[in-house]
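Lab notebook, bench 4. Still working through the backlog of constructs that have no structural model yet. Next entry is a single chain of 164 residues. Request: give me the structure tokens for it.
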Amino acid sequence: MSIYDIEVKSIRGELQTLAPYQGRVMLIVNTATQCGLAPQFKGLQHLHDTYQDQGFTVLGFPCAQFANQEPGDNDEVAQACEINFGITFPLYAKIDVNGSNAHPLFQYLTQQAKGIFGTKAIKWNFTKFLVDPQGNVVKRFGPKDEPHRIESYIQQLLKHSQNA
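Model written out:
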């Protein structure tokens, strides 16, 4: 099973897979609009805007598992992301990223790219997973890793995919 086979729900409730992103570099992020790290939305949007025409996409997965910092329903999350942060990158339905109800996508991501000391659990909101155009999880970034610090990794993957 590849990452592209995993079913996800859009923020509007449509069931789909990640197959439309095959061949693109993806940055998959668990987000929360009420989190102290929410200013990272601006940096994530900047990365998306800068590199989307070169084959890059940010994918946001809202999660309320950390101090319930994503309290609204999917419509409220979408509205908050659009109005407060100007988000245009794809958002998906709220999910769990840890525990027995963890979404299969995050089970897959955490299995492929473990955290510090080999842990699988997501520590907090804004944990980021960088996926190459072939669907391989190449790097995991912690919640405090600012989006601009990921830019060189994105550039490298995009350059490599354009030369392949």
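Notes after review: The chain has one domain: 3-156. Helices lie at 40-51, 74-85, 104-112, 151-163. Flag for follow-up if needed.
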